[in-house]
Each structure stands twice: as C-alpha cells, then as structure tokens.
Amino acid sequence: MHRRTLLVVLLAAALLVPPAADAQKPIKVGMPMPLSGPPALFGEPATKGAMMFVEEINARGGVLGRKLELITRDSKADANEAVRQARELILKDNVDFLVGTLTSAEGPAVSVVAKENKIVFIAPIPKTDQLTAPDKLHPYVFRVASTTTIEGRSAAEIVAKWPVKRVATMSFDYAYGQDVTKAFVEHLKKIKPSVEIVDQQWPKLGEQDYNPFINAQMAKKPEAVFSSIWGGFFVTYSKQARAVGMFDALKYHFIGVGEAATPETAKSMGADYPVGIWGNSYDAFYWGETQAHRSYVARLSRYLKDEYPSSWAIQGYIGMQFLAEAIKKAESTDSDKVAKALLGLTVETPVGPLTIREKDHQANRGQLYGKTVMDPKYPFAIMKPVTYVDPTKFMD
Amino acid sequence: MFLFLIAAGLSLIFGVLRVLNFAHGTFYMLGAYATYQLVQWMGVSGGRFWLTALGGALVVAALGGLIERFLFRRLYGKDELYQLLFTYALALILSDAAKMLWGTQQKSVSRPPELTGALHVFGAIIPHYNLFIILLGPAIALAFWVVLQRTRVGRYIRAAALDRETLGALGVNVDALYTWVFVLASFLGGLGGALISPMRATTPGMDTEVIVEAFVVVVIGGLGSFWGTFLGALIYGQVLSFGILFFPRFSIFAVFALMAAVLIVRPWGLLGRPLR
C-alpha cells in the first residue's frame, strides 16, 4: 500500500514537474573497474583520475549546467563480473554512460552490454585490437587507450634501431600478450628483414617463477629481448632476470612494453630496477612537456596526496574528459547524439590533443617511451629522454 | 625449493590436524609483507636481511598461533566442507587486511648484499641467492625429519596424526601440541614468503597463486607425507623446467597432467598412505 502511494506520488511528480527540474539531476556515469586483487594497482588510480576530473568539472558548474556523478563498481578484473556490474549500473542505477574496464577480457564483454542497451561506452585501458575490430565495432563503443597494434609497432621501431639481429620475446600466454607480440614481430620483420626471432616464451598470466623461461631463452643466445610482462609481474620477472645477469648479457638491449617503465614500478624497485633498459608508460609525472601536463600533475599530486602521482590516473581522466566534451558538443545526454559527437572529436587532454577516429572509434593515444636512467633528483629510475611516440602512423 | 617450504607447512597441517588449510598461501604472502615492512625499517645490509626474514616468519608464526588458538580449534573433526569454507574465508579476510595495511602497489625487497653475486656453471648462471635457497630446502627437510623421528615432540606429533584421543588419554596436552604444530607450519609458510621476497614482487594476490602450486606439490607427493612433499616439489620444478625447454606452451599442462596421472594411479600421492 505504502509503496504504491509512493509510486503514484513519484509518477505525479514526474508528470507535473517540468523538464527544467530534470536539468538539475546529475548526469550519471557508471565505471566498472578492478578495485580488488592485483589489477587494482591500475584500476584504483584510473578511478581516482576520473574522480578528480568529475570534481574539477563540477566545481566549474558541470556539463550543460548539470553535475556529473561517477558511480564506481568493482569489476574484479573478470569479464563476467564486469558485465554483471555494467548491467546493474544501467538497470538499477540508471547510468547514462559507461566509462571503464581494464583488462582485454573485460573491455569487449562490456562493449556487448553497451550495444544491447544503446549506451555510450568509453574504454580507457583495454588494449586488445579486438575491442574495435570491424566485426566487433558498434556505434556506442569508443576507446581512448592505446592498442596492441600501436604498442607492438612503436616498440618495433625502437628495436629496429639497435645493432642486433637475434631477437627473442617474453609475453604472457593470453590475448594481450599474444596480440602485442604479434604486432611487434610482424612490424619488426617488415622494417628490418635481417632480424631473426630466435625464441618466444609464453609463461602463463601471473607466472611467479621466470627462471626456467629465462634460462631456456638465454640458451638461444638472443641479442635483444622484447617483453610485455606488465605491472607487478614485471617486478618479479626483472628481479629474477637481473639475478642471472640477463640484462648484462643483452647489453641492455631490452624493451619492456606493458608499462614496464612507469614511475610506480620504478619506485617500488628502487635500486633493483634494471636501469638502462627501455620501457613505456601512459604518463610520467616528470614528463612535464606542456603547461597543461604540468598543471595536471600538480593537481593530481594534491588530489592523491602523492609526491610522485600514479601514471594510470590519466586514463580515467581522459576517458571522462572525452565523455564530457562529447556531451557538450551534442548538447544532450542522449547516447545516440553523444556517440555521434564522439566521432572525430578532438580533445585537449593533459597529454596533448587526442582525436577519436570515425573509422574505428579509436583515439590516437600513444605512450611515452624512453631509456631508463638513474636521476639524482629521484630515488628511482626514470625514462630519459622520455618521448611521446605519436601512434598515428602505426594505425591501420 | 621455496615451494617446498610452503608445501611442507600445508602438508604438516593436513597430516596432523587433518585440515586442508586454504589460508596457508596467505601466510606466505604475509611473510613477504612482514619482511618488506621490517626491511623498510631496518634495511638489508650487514646481515640484517636475515633478521628481517626471520622476524617476518616469526610474526606470521605468532599470528598462526593466535588463529589456531581462537579460530581453528573449533574446526577439528568437522565436515571437510566447513573446513574448506572457513580457511578460504580466512584467506580472503587476511588478504584484504594486508591490502588495507600495505595498499595495492607492488612492493619489492632487495637481495641481501652478501648474496648478490652469481655462480657460473657450465655456461649457466646461478645467482648465489638461488643457490642458498636450493641448499636451505634440504637442510630444513632434514632438520624436520630429525625432529619428527628422533625427538619426543616428534613422536607426539606423529602419534597425534594417528590417534588424537589415545594420545590425550596418555596425558599429553594435545591442544597445546596442535597449537605448536600450527605455529610451526605458519612459520614455514611465512619463511617461504620472507625468503622469496627478494626474488619477486610482493603484491596482493600472490597468496592464491602459490596455494595452487603448493597443492599440486602436496598432491603429487602425498598429503601429510614429509618426504613426499620434498619429492613433489622436486618433481614439480623439474617437470616445469623441462616442459618449458621442450614444449614452451604446454609446460603448465605437463605439471597438471602429471598430477592427474598420480591421482589416477596412486590417489594418495607418491609417498603418501591411503586414508583408512
């Protein structure tokens, strides 16, 4: 009885109140991200970056006069869980948009939910090419992350400049590891046909003991190694590789993609970092190329209360930034209109202008690359010189 | 070899207490975190690494003692399902507690400076630290064997594994004995984590990774059998290494295939004894 009364009242209110009141309601954005377990290492700062953006834009009056409201959910880095959370966000929380997911398993899975519900979905981190492949692409999915093609080819360009012929690879045996390694090998062979791939190792995702893999690989006498062992796993891998003198044997002709040179990883390893190798990162607080980036880092540093703020926050930040700009451009929160507005949209992000291509809904998001060195200014290794590799020429 | 340390604790708890301790991997993780914390305070140089590793293992052992005294005690003789649910819940709670204390960022411990060198053998390079672990494994195995076979306490422990009631009737304080067995097993788990920390990243989630490996080792060797666990750890390492050398993409499969084969032929493990 009570509930029905309430419903009637609500219905009446909805009918009576003119749309003007609707403008006061916040625009809801659902964010499924891994917030527990090892992937939380990236999911948490990415969520914080998005939260910081929301706080900042709301302080300036929001979008179209409405505040943004971010609703985060723990996707546990699991495709099924991410789908469940995305559905719940849409059905229960009535979110207008989805921004989120981290792994290459979650991204494509949530993309299907977005397609079913005709809701714009922006993926800030998953790199697998499959997310925006022609057969998976639909009007509502967008990506502001880099891709395995971009990352593999960027690394191949660097390795091609080294005086090496015998190259080996070390990657986890799953979508991301396989895709990025394939892109690297194919591009390297194309631009430097004299290169020979002497060995490829495929430890399982999350391997803890790399010694057998390293030994088997070094037995093939490679002159350079490409690795896509990411995050905390890189710490384990490189500690074990360093102990058996692998980096010395390679004369530091080693490149670690999968963000092996993030300030976070360097910081946690301190003097144990294999200084001299090449690596990449989405962001680095010491990059400081532009005023916009310096200002972003200063604000993030304050927001996270961290002197050396995370390099992952930027992805959540950019994801939200694209959404907000698209809503402004569309002058609507209707997903169809916002999806159209996102096509070809260029946004001035802290890492420079980025554009979402109409062809595959993919932003030209490159990464920072550099050779790691010890800098007396910091108690850990940094990339120096650190270069933003523009991916435009690597995108098919 | 460090896997042996962890599996030995797991096997010990099962052999004596008849509880499959799913939280054992979490003790290993806590050992690594505790060591990291002590290293942050004390550093690793001048032999202090060994103090921190021992300290880390002792902290975990103390925690294990408390857990046995106040929680585990209620589990003995209960249905296996309850035991498994409880230890699993314990693993989740402890790992979340670790996350609250140390956050999600990976942590790293340096190798002790006295063991940063490496040995060159037939073209292969074996870091001194790895060599130390390789030697430590059999040493601990031997020490345990001596304790179990030759001392009074060892006889009690073996007796408790066989018949708890009779031992109690003979005037032995079985409750205290169980607590000490659990403390010892936690110590082994914690020590495994402490000693591995210079070779790995210390992250949330390392507990569930290791518990699966430890279970494989224990199942191959025989649950509750000490030398079986030792043998299981050796076989696990060898199969994995040779698997990687010859069929890089199927090395994990080889290990589990071996486990399946052992389970079919000798369900109680290579050196275990059939239950009842």
Cross-sheet strand order for the largest sheet of chain B: 1-4
Largest interface, counted by CB within 8 Å of the partner chain's CB? A-B, 36 and 36 residues
Helix and strand pattern of chain A = HHEHEHEHEEHEHEHEHHEHEHHHEEEEE
Give the biggest beta sheet of chain B: 2 strands, antiparallel
How would you characterize this protein structure?
The complex is a heterodimer of chains A (396) and B (276). In chain A, 42% of the residues lie in helices and 17% in strands. With 396 residues, chain A is of the alpha/beta class. Chain A folds into two domains: 2-146 and 294-355, 3-Layer(aba) Sandwich (Rossmann fold), CATH 3.40.50; 149-281 and 367-394, Rossmann fold, CATH 3.40.50. In chain A, strands 6, 7, 8, 9, 10, 13, 14 and 15 form an eight-stranded mixed β-sheet that branches. In chain A, strands 2-1-3-4-5 form a five-stranded parallel β-sheet, with helices on both faces. A two-stranded antiparallel ribbon of chain A has the order 11-12. Chain A is globular, with a radius of gyration of 22 Å. Chain A starts with a helix and ends in a 7-residue tail after the last strand. In chain B, the strands form two sheets. Chain B has a two-stranded antiparallel sheet. Chain B has a two-stranded antiparallel ribbon with strand order 2-3. Chain B has helices at residues 2-17, 24-42, 48-70, 80-102, 128-150, 152-162, 164-169, 174-196, 206-221, 226-246, 251-265; strands at 107-108, 118-121, 124-127, 201-202. In chain B, α1 (2-17) packs antiparallel against α10 and α3 runs antiparallel to α8 (174-196). Chain B is mostly helical and 276 residues long. Chain B is built from eleven helices and four strands. The model of chain B has no long low-confidence stretch (mean pLDDT 84). The two termini of chain B are 31 Å apart. The longest helix of chain B is centred in the N-terminal third of the chain and has 23 residues, at 48-70. Chain B has one domain (2-202). Chains A and B meet through α3, α8, α9 and α11 of A and β1, β3, α9 and α10 of B.
